[in-house]
Amino acid sequence: MPEGFDFTTDAVLDWEVEAIWDAIDQETLIFTRHAREELSLDALTLGDVLDAISFPDEITKDLPGGTRAPGLNFDRYFGDVRVRAKIGWKERYYLVITVMAN
Predict the structure, then answer these.
(1) Is 69 exposed, middle or buried (0-12, 13-18, 19+ CB in 10 A)?
(2) How far apart are CA 7 and CA 54, in angstroms?
(3) Around Cβ 68, how many Cβ atoms within 10 Å?
(4) What is the rounded CA–CA span in Å between residue 47 and residue 23?
């Protein structure tokens, strides 16, 4: 498997998204403790987050060295509410770093 993301560009590449979707299919996507805590704080379900990742309205990339953790942001809009899942990479695994609804 290649590295999790291509951080030489801020463009979201098809292979990056497809690799995350593969991780969902293979049940290897890991939720960090922080992401699990945010699920309950924002009254989100696992299904809400997986829906945002699987059927995003928008995907953006944060590069290393910025103010946010590097990775992809999957946003899904439900009326006035945006559900965001931030996906990072560690060693060989994609991680849901944080989730939020606002």
Answers:
(1) middle
(2) 22
(3) 13
(4) 15
